[in-house]
Design brief:
434 Repressor (Amino-terminal Domain); Rossmann fold; 12 helices; 14% strand; elongated
Length: 361
């Protein structure tokens, strides 16, 4: 039986191995046991599979371009990511192609089609399925940005869970708050999933019961306004809200102050990211600072190095900072406290917690 239309994913399923193993066997790279190699070759021969032509073309970097895959481009977060990524790509005269999937049903097929026009791909975590990430990694260099990829695919990220836990402990232990709500949808992105887990972990560590469910809204300012309406309808109003990002936190701030509540006297509000606006509102927003631009710059450097064959495919875990400001009730200091290392190498199973530094701007 022969079918030139079989994909590497289907060959992997037939041989009972991973997509990466099929790639190693078909390209003659890496270490594979003799028994596994024979099984893969048998499946390849029986089904007439031919490795994707990109495998050889990419070695010569014939496209002079790399791709960025995002779910969308709204808000300052994506602007920072693009600027950081492009700042490194221009140094090597590499053009950057951006694909916004908007989480459509055909997103995976769109990304695979884009892979035919670039020398490497950076994919924001959670934008396409893990199976598609594996299929892409068998075709060309892939780095996951701000998320975790399948085994063997490098990722550049922060420890969202540890950072959110540190922020939540600050409210529970340092401010003595007991009624907190989490604003964000854990089903919407890997980042929010991890931050919700960190929020719950802080409660567990202090032997306090967390809310059973978050206030499930999106990550833009209007979503935060909707969350504020839900907070205001509570029979027993929470003492504070821990928002999944700064944009939604700013929306909550607008929503509750517009209804006459004082922040932080009546409600504590915190965010995540430390976008520029977080320090400019009144009161300034307590948040977690993650090096958004550097995350993207490091992703570009790693992707370009792997595509050129000058680097191993290892991921990086960057440090974060807890930034305490007026929205949680902390006094504002005129000068920020400098922090330590910007990033640390990590293995995929590293448990390093880099979220303990604190800044009070």
């Amino acid at each position: 039986m022969s079918s030139s239309r079989l994909t590497v994913r289907e060959i992997a399923r037939l041989a009972g191995v991973s997509v990466a193993t099929v790639s190693r066997v078909s390209n003659g790279t890496g270490q594979v046991s003799e028994e596994t190699r024979r099984r893969v070759l048998r499946a390849i021969e029986e089904h007439g599979y031919r490795p994707h032509h990109l495998g050889r073309a990419l070695a010569a970097r014939r496209h002079g371009a790399v791709g960025l895959v995002f779910p969308g481009l709204s808000g300052p977060y994506f602007s920072e990511l693009i600027q950081g990524f492009e700042s490194e790509a221009v140094k090597t005269r590499t053009s950057v192609h951006i694909l916004c999937t908007h989480l459509r049903a055909d997103s995976d097929a769109e990304v695979i089609e884009m892979a035919q026009r670039v020398d490497g791909l950076a994919v924001l975590g959670g934008t396409v399925s893990p199976d598609t990430i594996e299929e892409l990694a068998a075709m060309l260099p892939v780095v996951v940005l701000a998320g975790d990829g399948p085994a063997g695919v490098p990722a550049v990220r922060v420890d969202n869970a540890a950072a959110a836990a540190a922020l939540t402990r600050h409210l529970l232990a340092d401010h003595g708050l007991r009624r907190l709500e989490f604003v964000g949808d854990p089903n919407g992105s890997p980042d929010v999933t991890e931050r919700w887990a960190g929020f719950r972990q802080a409660h567990h560590d202090l032997e306090l019961p967390p809310p059973r469910a978050p206030i499930r809204v999106g990550l833009q300012q209007p979503d935060g306004v909707h969350a504020a309406e839900q907070v205001l309808r509570r029979a027993i109003r929470p003492q504070g809200v821990v928002c999944a990002n700064d944009e939604s936190a700013l929306g909550v701030l607008v929503g509750v102050t517009g209804r006459g509540l004082r922040v932080p006297e009546d409600l504590v509000i915190t965010g995540f990211d430390d976008i520029p606006m977080a320090a400019l509102v009144t009161p300034p927003l307590t948040t977690v600072r993650q090096p958004v631009r550097e995350l993207a710059a490091q992703t570009a450097r790693l992707l370009l190095q792997v595509a050129a064959g000058s680097a191993e495919q290892t991921g990086l875990l960057h440090a974060t900072e807890l930034v305490v400001r007026g929205s949680c009730g902390c006094p504002r200091s005129p000068e920020p406290t400098p922090t330590g290392r910007r990033h640390t190498p990590r293995s995929r199973h590293s448990g390093t917690n880099q979220a303990a530094s604190t800044t009070t701007p």
